[in-house]
Design goal:
By secondary structure, the protein is mainly alpha-helical. The chain is built from 9 helices and 4 strands. The protein has 3 domains: 75 residues, no CATH class; 36 residues, no CATH class; 42 residues, no CATH class.
């Protein structure tokens, strides 16, 4: 391993760790890299070439592969922030909202809906757009129920919820969380809807 006297260089540890991930089965990260066939280009066996190709690392950035199934090489690597890297992981759920592809985390940050809420809504059969953009119901809001155009429940639905004991089935039917069903039964919100 030729280092050209640059072992104290700020990028040396990054270069060594990249090689370990690809070459050393004893390293915990190997299963995500070398075991999957991820390697590094011949040119980057020389540390000086790695430094020349990548340039200085900006503060708060680390080495990132653009294509997670691709190798470490100049055309597939960049310095990326933690947020960019988290959005570039293999296990991310990709949503299409307003015609734009984004991760669930990106949608969560953009519209202020927690990832857990988005996930639960999708499991209940909501569209990706509804799950990411529909405001979360809050008992402190003044406009709830049909007065709030972004909410899914009609006056008839609220009446049905008040009289039925089937929480899970109602949640699935109306595409809302079970806690909302329980709150409506306790009389929280939707005061403007009179019982039949």
């Amino acid at each position: 391993m030729r280092t050209h006297g640059l072992r104290k260089h700020s990028l040396y540890k990054t270069w060594v760790e990249m090689r370990y991930r690809c070459d050393n089965p004893k390293k915990p990260q190997y299963k995500y890299y070398g075991a999957r066939g991820i390697t590094y280009c011949e040119r980057w066996k020389d540390f000086a070439n790695f430094v020349a190709d990548m340039g200085p690392r900006p503060d708060g950035h680390s080495l990132d592969r653009i294509n997670n199934d691709g190798n470490y090489e100049p055309s597939n690597c960049r310095w990326a922030s933690k947020i960019v890297q988290m959005n570039n992981m293999r296990g991310n759920r990709i949503l299409v909202v307003d015609g734009e592809q984004m991760t669930m985390a990106e949608a969560s940050r953009r519209w202020g809906i927690s990832i857990g809420n988005i996930w639960n809504r999708l499991e209940l059969g909501w569209t990706e757009e509804e799950a990411a953009k529909t405001a979360v119901w809050s008992p402190t809001r003044r406009r709830v129920g049909v007065k709030n155009a972004r909410h899914k429940l009609t006056n008839e639905a609220v009446r049905e919820i008040r009289t039925s004991k089937k929480t899970k089935e109602l949640a699935e039917k109306f595409g809302v969380h079970r806690t909302l069903i329980q709150r409506i039964r306790r009389g929280v919100g939707w005061e403007h809807v009179a019982d039949a």
